[in-house]
Amino acid sequence: MDFEPTPYNIPLGFLYWLIVTGFGTIVVLVVTLLALLITRGTKGFGDFLNLLSSAALDIVQISPRRVGAITRLTFLEAIRRRALLVFVVFAILFMFAGWFLSGGTLVPDFQVKLYVSFVLRAIAWLVLPVALLLSCWGIPEDIKQRSLHTVVTKPVRRLEVVLGRMLGFGLINTLVLLVMAVAGYVWLQQQIDEKARPELTCRRPVFGQLTFLDREGKPAATGINVGDIWEYRSYIEGATRARAIWKFAGIDESALNKDGELILENRFSAFRSHKGQMGRSLLYQLVFVNPETGLRVGTQLRQVAEFRGRTDAIPRTLPKAGEAIGGKITEEAGETVDLINDLVSPSGELVVEAVCIDPGQYMGMARPDLFIRTPDGSFLAGYAKSILGLAMMVLLIVFLGVAASTFLKGPVATLLTFCLVLVGMTAREFMMTIVSGRFEGGGPIESVYRIVLHMNPTQELPTGIAFQSMHLMDLAIRQFVWLIFQIIPNFDYFNMAPYLANGFDVSFNASVLPSIAVTLAFFLPCLLLGYFCLRVRELEAK
User: Fold this and answer.
1) Please, are residues 94 and 122 in contact by the beta-carbon 8 Å criterion?
2) Is the pLDDT confidence value at 187 over 70?
3) Which residues, 6 or more positions from 307, have their beta carbon under 8 angstroms from its beta carbon?
4) Closest by alpha carbon to 169, among 76, 85, 64, 59?
């Protein structure tokens, strides 16, 4: 697995939400007050206070019954607009997908990866246009056909209209998503070959912290760089004192499978400085270390399974063997150790060292390339988590689309919402680079200065007040970009296909929890923005 799940920081995310939401609220209120003062003079301040008081009254007196009625009407209206026709495209796509995927000729794990990715991506990209069109065209069409005029003359508040629209469109899109999800799951069970069925699983990995020892046995931050442009993996040299050391925490008997074995799975890679022994791959050894007692027990030599990965079942009772020297392992006859009682410390820490045996060869690894595989979960549970992530994405798009439709016409609201989705899916890494200031040549102002004077990006700038002012201006621009960066939702959280397609359980802390948190974080700002925009909008304007 070439991705490293990062747990979501709830306190930090909530702090950022407070900062961005508070700043955005202040900006909207200040702009509204200035607009009223400019257009209505001194009466504008009184109108501003009346607007705030009536808004507070609308929030307090919101009626669940009226919201439910609008939600129901929105749901029925979406059906009348033939939103369910997307099922026709979905059915056609899945009817002929088997012709082009060629499942019978694929390796089992690759077939599962291909089919699962296809199902989840097909569902996501078919639900996306339905959510966009319904949410972005609903209110503008009501204003154009004057049906909203009848609603607002009744005892229905504009806040209830916006909330009912969000819930109604969210409900119909969730229904569409669930039907597609059930059909996709049935299709997977029918299309995947019998020999590939065991790959439909959800590994539950326990990752450790990775450190290194260099060829002389001294601690090192990373291993050797063998010249690969992608510096994801570091390498250790064979037949030296170099080690890759993983420290696992919280290990006890629950980490063993039903046969009492500890399952270790790895994705080690090999780099050869010479041909070596033909007919076999590089040899490696795993050494278990008790960090408190210093007891070291080596395992049998194994071959690196390049490009495929390898799963090793370590029995609980191990022969007391030493580390391989010259390709040979020393054992103390008749003596054994218990993996849990003797090698795991009382605090639950287990240390595993990986050693490359072949001289002149190199073995590469990253932190996720060795993990403890606890008892697997069901594929259906992982699939349900992936669908939950797509449901959160659909709800987020509905919230953004309804909010945009309260102050823009249908086509423009659709374009704005689609651009937010596109930027959130593709450009966040680029924006993060700008925000962090990692660009060579400095910020925008400094870059323009260097371009005009034909200066090298690594050349030092002179000192002085003018250049300090330049850096301050670049800092202000970066802070503004940081604010935009926080406003644009991170859609990477909703894409849980890499977990499921690679046979891993969807991480709750790294994917499910942040997807729910991001959707809820946008709900209240979008609701209030849509309410105030619809409140000040001239409904007679089509």
Assistant:
1) yes
2) yes
3) none
4) 76
Domains, the chain: 10-100+107-200+378-536 (no CATH), 204-376 (2.60.120)
* HSE, side-chain direction, 13 A CA sphere, residue 453: 13
Distance spanning both ends of the chain, measured CA to CA: 53
How does DSSP assign 367-384, residue by residue? GGGEEEEEEEE-HHHHHH
Mean pLDDT over each residue of the chain, to the nearest integer: 84
pLDDT tens, residue by residue, 194-220? 888 888 889 889 999 999 999 898 999
Residue 267 CB-half CA count within 13 A? 16
Residue 287 in contact with residue 355, Cβ under 8 Å? Answer: yes
355, amino acid identity = V
Q: Closest Cα to residue 321, out of 343, 306, 305?
A: 343
Report the phi/psi class of residue 447: left, alpha or beta, with left for phi > 0 and alpha for psi in -120 to 50. Answer: alpha
Select from 23, 45, 52 the least CA-distant residue to 535.
52
Residue 382: the pLDDT is: 92
The partner residues of 13 in beta bridges, in order of sequence, read none
Q: What is the DSSP letter of 107?
A: -
Q: Given this model, what pLDDT does residue 155 score?
A: 67
| Contact present, 130 and 83 (Cβ < 8 Å) | yes
User: What is residue 243's three-state secondary structure?
Assistant: strand
Q: Work out whether the CA dihedral 475, 476, 481, 482 comes out positive or negative.
A: positive
pLDDT (tens digit, 9 = 90+) per residue, 502-526?
888 888 888 899 999 999 999 999 9
Task: Write out the two tokens for 103.
Answer: 């499942």
Q: Report the largest interatomic distance among the alpha carbons of the chain, rounded to a whole angstrom.
A: 97
Would you call 244 helix, strand, or coil by DSSP?
strand
Q: pLDDT: is 418 or 27 the higher one? A: 418
Q: Please tell me the distance from the alpha carbon of residue 471 to that of residue 479, in angstroms, as a whole number.
A: 12
Instruction: Output the CA angle 503-199-384, nearest 5 degrees.
Output: 55
CA distance 160 to 79: 21
Q: Give the pLDDT score at 514.
A: 93
**Gap between the Cα atoms of 28 and 532, Å rounded:** 10
The backbone region for 217, taken as left when phi is positive above 0, alpha when psi lies in -120 to 50, beta otherwise, is left
- Please tell me the distance from the alpha carbon of residue 367 to that of residue 48, in angstroms, as a whole number: 56
Ramachandran bin of 276, using left for φ above 0, alpha for ψ from -120 to 50, beta for the remaining angles: left
Q: Return the closest-CA partner of residue 123 out of 384, 484, 372.
A: 384
Q: Tens digits of per-residue pLDDT, 458-506?
A: 777 777 887 788 888 888 888 888 888 888 898 888 988 889 988 888 8
Encoding tokens for residue 97?
């997908």
Task: Tell the burial category of 389 from Cβ atoms under 10 Å away from its Cβ (0-12, 13-18, 19+).
Answer: buried
Going by the DSSP 8-state scheme, the letter that residue 53 receives in this structure is H
Angstrom CA distances, 418 to 297, 361, 497, stand at 57, 50, 21
What three-state secondary structure class fits 532? helix
In which residue are the tokens 């809820």 written?
520
pLDDT tens digits, one per residue of 84-114: 676 677 677 666 666 666 655 567 778 888 8
